[in-house]
Design goal:
heterodimer, A: mainly alpha, B: alpha+beta, Alpha-Beta Plaits, 34% strand
């Protein structure tokens, strides 16, 4: 039996099994550990013995037995006591989520947790990844990732977070936090900012899988659909994004025949379906930008004025340095490098893009490109080198140094 | 008269490595029990029955001067613990003993019969 069939089944079942245990017995922290051990047992036994007739039932039974063991050893250590709030009945919320995995996702992305902890807990509890896989994916040691997960669970317990669907009042905030965590997971997989790609769990695909799950549960939510579309449209370009030697290929130079047309169509259809809904948020706008790129048969045919306008809208809802730099690039393409450079100078003066750690590297890279287009090659070469020195990504570093050398020829 | 039938099992049995994986013997006994339960349903004597989780997953609540306190774990640590219960509604204590006797004969573990008190006959 192929091992990845088992692995896929386990990842899909993980949140359902955890949901079943937590719903009945509480103890999210211990139940989550118990499910991990059940998944581990299954990944050892199933490839050899075959998948049981009722995989979920098997996992719940093994997880339940492990939970009993964990509870008993903890109870033996100390009798835990806490004040029970019995006077306050559960607020009458909306109908419970049909699928435990969404309730779990929203719990793991609880606002009491730091984004890095939300991501770690989500990948383990909802994604069914082991601590070592998650640690490897983020380039940190296993004890570090383990401590992160333990801290996240402790904070959840302290904050009194419960395994219940959010109330109508805080639903939007909770979904926004979940979208942010999924977006971070996807970006980490896409950019691979630490080290090389070897042996990494594919975080981008994992993020897409989890976002698909959320979209299936909440098909009417336009921002969820927007985020899924953004991921699909970005993922579609994966094969064209690096050349045979692993070098980064910028969008303009990518071989568009290597873009995945199925993913592009699915992403574009998603954007088209939700674009009319009011109050477009950051994911929908970014998906729309990606869809405009996807619609262009060649780089020259790109509708840059529309992209520049979309970036202006994005800057309104998401006024950050990286968005402003992207708008500069779009304006330069639409109206020429001189207009782009003027906008960059203006934004840099008002928002200190070159001094901010988040944007200092890309500000130099963008300025270098604009100066090169305007013919100031010595200044461009210097800035390419500065930008290369500021990135830890080997692929990007090689690309920038190559551009810098070209300007000196 | 309503009676609560309490079925007990040794904790050691519950904790045994192979518990939760039902032997063919146990499955067969349970099938016989299910047929008996159908009989009782037909006579109108069966009210309800459920199996219970391990005592480790129970929570005990007590009123204290500081408010109601919840404690993880069972009310008391015992060697034999409640594993399932059933409520029956039958004509007499003798009939309740007869019914419980059949279940014990089938499933093998001890059952305690507790009459359920009504408004006209308290504690």
């Amino acid at each position: 039996m192929p091992g990845d069939t088992v692995e896929h089944l386990l990842r899909t079942e993980a949140p359902q099994v955890l949901g079943a245990l937590v719903r009945r017995f509480g103890h999210f922290d211990l139940a989550e550990d118990a499910v991990q051990e059940a998944l581990l047992a299954a990944s050892r036994q199933w490839p050899a013995d075959g998948i049981p007739a009722d995989p979920r039932g098997w996992l719940i039974r093994v997880g339940y037995r492990r939970l009993v063991d964990l509870l008993r050893s903890e109870q033996a250590r100390r009798r835990r006591e806490h004040q029970a709030v019995l006077a306050e009945p559960e607020p009458a919320g909306p109908a419970p989520a049909s699928d435990d995995s969404v309730t779990l996702l929203l719990l793991c992305c609880h606002p009491a947790l730091k984004p890095t902890d939300q991501v770690a807990l989500t990948l383990r509890a909802v994604g069914g990844l082991s601590t070592s896989e998650t640690a490897h994916a983020y380039g940190v040691s296993e004890p570090t990732m383990s401590a992160r997960i333990t801290r996240a669970k402790r904070r959840l317990a302290e904050s009194g977070a419960r395994f219940t669907a959010p109330t109508a009042a805080d639903r939007d905030g909770r979904v926004a936090a979940a979208l942010q965590a999924l977006y971070l997971i996807f970006n980490e997989g896409y950019i691979a900012s630490r080290g090389d790609r070897l042996g990494r769990i594919d975080l981008a695909r994992e993020a897409i899988r989890l976002t698909r799950m959320l979209h299936a549960a909440e098909p009417a939510d336009p921002e969820i659909a927007g985020l899924l579309a953004l991921m699909l449209l970005t993922e579609a370009r994966r094969a064209a994004r690096t050349d045979g030697d692993g070098r980064l290929v910028p969008l303009a130079e990518q071989d568009r025949s290597r873009w995945d047309s199925g993913l592009l169509r699915e992403g574009t259809d998603l954007v088209d379906g939700v674009w009319g809904a009011p109050d477009a948020g950051p994911y929908r706008i970014q998906a729309a930008i990606a869809a405009v790129h996807a619609a262009a048969a060649s780089a020259e045919a790109t509708d840059w004025p529309q992209i520049a306008a979309l970036y202006l809208g994005l800057e309104h809802v998401n006024p950050t340095g990286p968005v402003r730099l992207s708008r500069v690039v779009a304006v330069a393409h639409a109206y020429g490098p001189a207009r782009g450079l003027a906008l960059l100078d203006d934004l840099d003066e008002r928002h200190r893009l070159s001094g901010d750690q988040l944007t200092s590297q890309r500000e130099r890279a963008v300025r270098a490109h604009l100066l090169e287009m305007l013919g100031d090659r010595p200044a461009a070469a210097r800035l390419y080198r500065e930008a290369a020195a500021l990135t830890a990504n080997v692929v990007e570093q090689r690309y920038l140094l190559g551009r810098g050398r070209r300007c000196q020829d | 008269m309503k009676y609560l039938l309490l079925a007990y099992t040794p904790v050691a049995t519950w904790d045994a490595e192979n518990s939760g994986i039902d032997s063919e013997e146990a499955m067969a006994a349970f099938a016989v029990y299910q047929r008996f339960q159908e009989e009782l349903t037909a006579t109108g004597e069966f009210v309800g029955s459920e199996g219970l989780g391990h005592p480790a997953v129970s929570t005990t609540l007590r009123r204290t001067p500081d408010g109601v306190v919840a404690t993880d774990g069972p009310f008391a640590e015992l060697k034999e613990v409640l594993a399932s219960y059933a409520v029956i509604d039958c004509a007499s204590q003798e009939r309740a003993v007869e019914i419980a006797g059949r279940i014990v004969a089938i499933l093998g573990e001890p059952i305690e019969i507790r009459p359920i008190m009504c408004a006209d006959l308290t504690g």
